[in-house]
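Example 234.
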Amino acid sequence: LDNQNLFSSRFILSIFPHMFDGFLNESIIKRAIQKKIVEINIHDFREFSKDPHKKVDDYQFGGGAGMILMPEPIYDCVESIRDDDSYIILMTPQGVSYNQKKANELKLKKHLIIICGHYEGFDERIRALADLEVSIGDYVLTGGELPSMVITDSIVRLLDGAIKEESTETESFNNGLLDYPVYTKPVNFRGMEVPSVLLSGHHENIKKWRYEESLKRTKERRPDILEEKTYGER
Ligand code: 6GU
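Predicted structure in complex with 6-chloroguanine:
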């Protein structure tokens, strides 16, 4: 069997490396790093600035408000870590919308480099470095750091050994449907009962109930993904 991710590494470029402290040091991500399922390195491209004050941004030509990230520190930083396998992502609200399908594609990349912009924008020539520009949704954030954590989280949990296999197989979006409702103890909580079929021990009926609930929930909440599932993938 070809284990796609026996070892994979991700390099995140950001001038705010401490934003990643909590993310890398808790829960599933921490464990995946300890288990050597993934290696994640944060590179502060400010260290590549040749300016005596470690400047990485400047005013824009033509006039206008806001500071723009300069190309050189980012190019120098990328060139210090890239190899033939590197796949380079630029986080920007102008990028393609991120989704589960993209996560499944990106988990196959052995060596990801994720560039986080910050401030008002980045020099257009930085785009030439990227294989892909990614946005995590139609709203504006102060920088690419949170988005880079969002995509890293979605990828790491898919890597072999990061979490129990079953949980990624049945979850929302993977079969193109939202999750069915789940319950744990107690059977009666403040008058709200666990559906009796789940207590029946009848596996066929449980399976059928879950599928129907998934379908119902998807119809109610996300008819858009249901249509994509029915008509989209030919
Ligand atoms: Cl990738 N960056 C920023 N700054 N804002 C965003 C985004 C990225 N995705 C959605 N909003």
